[in-house]
Amino acid sequence: MSLLQATLPYTHTDDLFIDGAWQRSTGAGRTEVTNPATGEVWGSVPQASVADLDAAVAAARRAFTGSAVVGSGWRDLAPAVRARFLRRLASEIEERAEAISHTNTWENGSPVAETSKAAANAASIFRYFASLAPLLETPDIRPFPDGSAETVVRLDPVGVCALIAPWNFPINLVVAKLAPALMAGCTVVIKPASPTPLSVRLIVDAAVAAGIPAGVINLVTGPGSLGDALVKHPGIAKVAFTGSTPVGRSIAAACGTLLRPVTLELGGKSSALVLPDVDLDAMSQVLIRSCMRNTGQTCYISTRVLAPAERYDELVDMVTATIQAAPQGDPMDAATVFGPSATHSQQQIVRGYIRSGLAEGARATTGGDVTSGFDRGFFVKPTVFADVTPDMRIAREEIFGPVLSILRYSSLEEAVRIANDTPFGLGGTIFSADPDAAFALAPRLDTGSVGLGFFASNHAAPFAGRHDSGLGAEFGPEGLRAYLSVQSVHRRIR
Ligand code: NAP
Ligand code: MG
């Protein structure tokens, strides 16, 4: 692939976005950006210094409160005014759809079939949160139970928020935090993941074009230690994180000590519970989206298929044929379904799981090779394992690659037990020809979301992980509340 084939406004950069301008970093280190389809380095970004981080947080604090004139901060704008900025930002993002898609694909290998929707999805998230402005404007007055007085329950933005994102959806997982933060009246410092530091710059450019005031959005790049320093920075009021469970735990511990509000969207190991009456053709249509989205690098996908014994072989055949029919290759090709793994280290992790599955006695019905079939890039052959038992590592641990495990159950009780026997609690799907039976079963899955016959995320509904999958919720009014702090003002009834 040559650079000419793609729209890549940013490749090698020296600057960070602080106080409304791209400013040269004072940091000494650099992080390279690699195209996972080729293994070639094509970009690089600075690693922010402590001074850069201090400047970004200070700018965000000034923008929050308004530096010169009291009442002139982002927090002081009427919610309807902030909503107008969000809508303008949405349109500016749509203008940059191709550059966002190509940069994202070159950073993490997500096929353009996926990344070409990133801008529209981001725009729709901003418009959704803009539509919640009335929630912030409607007075909430609650009488004392004895009728002696009343309380006005006000909502204040919490302050400067640290937004820390992973590499699998570098636009969406920033925007899911940025949109509610801005709507609430918060200002932010964003730290993207090291493999994907460039595509998010196009969101910042869109914010500049939308006229969002200086300091409201700041962007710093650098390693995990920069994320750690951001989480603990004295100027930060709240942390929003998406990423791995171990890093989430360490952030939660830091926020516990600081008594700093935190939302965490972490890993998962979700199940597709297939009932005996399943329509296999219908399931085949949504299988990849629900169980292998983004080359298996999606937190909520149902990577364990729980199949009834009486239909086990049929199901294994359907899943195998569906995965085999999906093309893997150049992620810039619109027909590609499976790209490479996002990084060399992720490729090695996924191959380790494939070896572990084979060693523990699982049967690969497709893939299963530890060679990719490609002469370069971080590809892993999409792999389906049958005869997987609940104790195997591939059945229990998050793989984050194109590997599906099919387990067998003989009673619904057993299926529910297997589905819930994991430390995670993020997603899950139920496949049945009977929508009422599927709906009745959903409450028995101990997870934050369940899809009946498909899985998709809805910006208007909370996306929340239970147990090791996280704390708090993103999206919906619940997602906005995470950026607000309440104040009860008691007054005499006039
Ligand atoms: P990660 O290692 O947890 O990193 C996530 C982000 O945190 C990156 O920006 C990373 O920076 C930063 N970071 C690393 N160490 C940190 C620390 N000690 N303090 C503060 N920030 C720190 O996860 P990843 O490797 O990027 O992504 C893969 C994982 O994310 C998977 O395990 C997946 O389960 C999870 N994930 C969950 C969801 C969800 O919504 N639940 C979505 C996507 C991914 P560097 O990149 O510079 O290290
Ligand atoms: Mg990591």
TrEMBL record:
Keywords: Oxidoreductase. Pfam families: Aldedh (PF00171). Residues 22-489 form the Aldehyde dehydrogenase domain. InterPro entries: Ald_DH/histidinol_DH, Ald_DH_C, Ald_DH_N, Aldehyde_DH_dom. The keyword Transcription regulation does not apply. GO terms for molecular function: oxidoreductase activity, acting on the aldehyde or oxo group of donors, NAD or NADP as acceptor. It comes from the Bacteria. Belongs to the aldehyde dehydrogenase family. This is Aldehyde dehydrogenase family protein.
